[in-house]
Amino acid sequence: MAYVKILAPLTGNASDATVLAGAFAAAAPFKAHIVALFVRPDPAEAMPFFGEGVSGAMAQEIVDTAKEASDKASIEARGALAAAAKDAGAVVIDRPEKRDMVSISFREVQGNFADRVTLAARLSDLVVFGPLKQSDRPGMAEAFEATLLETGRPVILAAQTMPKNFARRIAIGWDGSGACARALIAAMPYLARAEAIELLSIRKPNTECESCGEVRDYLALHGLACQERMIDAGSRGIGEVLLEAASQGGADLLVLGGYGHKSLLQMFIGGVTKHVVAHAELPLFLVH
Questions:
Q1: Rounded Cα distance, 205 and 74, in Å
Q2: Which of 71, 100, 103, 192 is the most buried if burial means most Cβ atoms within 10 Å?
């Protein structure tokens, strides 16, 4: 089991370094290929905001200014790619190609950011975003939502500082739901290579984890062992307790499911999701 193609959306901003560090860490166990996708905005999309009274000369100035900004951002994205590839000891190639080492290629397209990222994600094994709380590109949250909800692809939200031993110690947030089961199965390529797996079940008062044994049996059939930890959240938020437990266990990747809502607004209303996404200091592996 392996991931061979990883998508890393770039913006030409400071966040690209975090995205690329996450992508290279995610690619390393499989010698995967990374597609660094830069989406050049379509200036025509901005014109309706200026109204019907815009003269031809002003319209051209708007287009020229947008192109200049896109050109600069593209150069910055390419520079970040080159620097990150050098640090990772990866090879930069023109197009996706299987190599006996981690490789990366740069792809530039034009259009709506979220739409183009979602389209590219459909034929990717995994998509890496930077922390959403630090996103400096309009449309990044929308791209994350669309990728997660519409494509079925696993998403990694990279940490600001990626752990040196990425995915060596994996925590699984487990509530017995179908989304959690899908996340666990999608994460198997990493779980199969992990040195330690811990199943975290945040217990509600007077309840037990009836399906934890099934998880243990499933992993055992794959030759994997896991530790189980039942945690009583008490009056504290589940998201807070889950992050604390993962940190205490030394996890360098937290696998999560449970995103069943249909819009980003609804998604972030949920206390667990909102807290985990906003406060995680370790990488998150998410599946809808």
A1: 53
A2: 103
What contacts 57, CB < 8 A, 6 or more positions away?
A: none
Q: What is the largest CA-CA distance in the chain?
A: 70
DSSP string across 206-232: T---TTHHHHHHHHHHTT---EEEEEE
Of 169, 132, 173, give the one whose Cα is nearest residue 258.
173
CATH homologous superfamily of 169-286: HUPs (3.40.50.620)
Q: How many CB atoms lie within 10 A of CB 54?
A: 15
CATH topology of domain 5-157: Rossmann fold (3.40.50)
User: Is the alpha carbon torsion for 76, 78, 81, 85 positive or negative?
Assistant: negative
β-sheet with 126-129: strand ranges across: 91-92, 103-110, 33-40, 5-10, 126-129, 155-157, 284-286, 253-256, 169-173, 196-203, 227-232
Going by the DSSP 8-state scheme, the letter that residue 249 receives in this structure is T
Say yes or no to pLDDT of 264 above 50.
Answer: no
Cβ count near 6 (within 10 Å) = 24
Q: For the chain, give every residue range classified as CATH 3.40.50.620.
A: 5-157, 169-286
84-112: pLDDT as tens digits: 999 999 999 999 999 999 999 999 999 99
Question: Which residue has 């740069």 as its token pair?
Answer: 106
The reported pLDDT for the residue numbered 211 is 85
Q: pTM for the complete prediction?
A: 0.89
**Residue 89 structure tokens:** 């000891």
Residue 263 has pLDDT above 70, yes or no: no
What digits encode the pLDDT tens for the residues 32-61?
999 999 999 887 665 555 556 566 666 666
CB neighbourhood size of 288 (10 A):
21
